[in-house]
Amino acid sequence: MTEPVCVGAIGGSFGVRGEVRLKSFTAEPEAIASYAPVTSGDGRAFDLRITRPIKGGFAARLSGIDSKEAADALRGVRLYVPRERLPALPDDEFYHADLIGLDVLDTGGARLGRVRAVLNYGAEDLIEVQAPGRSATVLLPFTRATVPTVDLAARRIVADPPDGLFD
After folding, report:
1. Under a CB-based contact definition with an 8 Å cutoff, are residues 97 and 152 in contact?
2. Which fold has domain 5-84?
3. pLDDT tens digits for the chain (167 residues)?
4. Measured by CB atoms within 10 angstroms of the end CB, which terminus of the chain is less buried, N or C?
C-alpha cells in the first residue's frame, strides 16, 4: 500500500483569474488543503489554497495556474498525495483506494466478484461489485452486517449479501 491516494478532482475553472473548482474526497472536505502539495496523475505538483466554499466543493488556487484557460485545461484532473501524509485510520475504517480491486467472497468462500468502486449517495457507503460473467454491477451496502470482514493483507472482502442480490 505505497501508491498515492486520490484526495480530490478539478472540475474546471471558477471565474477568470485562474481559480479552479475543486471537489474534495477527504473525510473533512476542507482538510484537502492541509495535505498539499498535491500531484496530478502525470506528476505535476501544485500548492493548493482554498479560497472559498462553492456549490459542490471549493474554489481554490493552484500554484502556477493564473488564467481561466490554464484552469480549464485541468478539468477532470485528479489530485493525489503520498499515503504517509494521510492520517492513520482506526481498524474498522478504510481508504476507498484500498478497497478497489479487492476480491469479494461470500461467507462460504464462493467468489462474488471484485470491488470496482466505492460510492456514497448520502446514506451509507456502497461497494460496486463486478460479478464474473455479468455486464451489470451489483451495489452492496458497506455495513458491518453485510461486509463482516475486510482483509487488506489477503486482498479480499467477505460479504453476507441480502438474499437474491447476486442472483
Report:
1. no
2. Elongation Factor Tu (Ef-tu); domain 3 (2.40.30)
3. 678 899 999 999 999 999 999 999 888 899 999 999 999 989 999 999 999 999 989 999 999 999 999 999 999 999 999 989 988 888 888 888 889 999 999 999 999 999 999 988 877 889 999 998 888 899 999 999 999 999 999 999 999 998 888 87
4. C
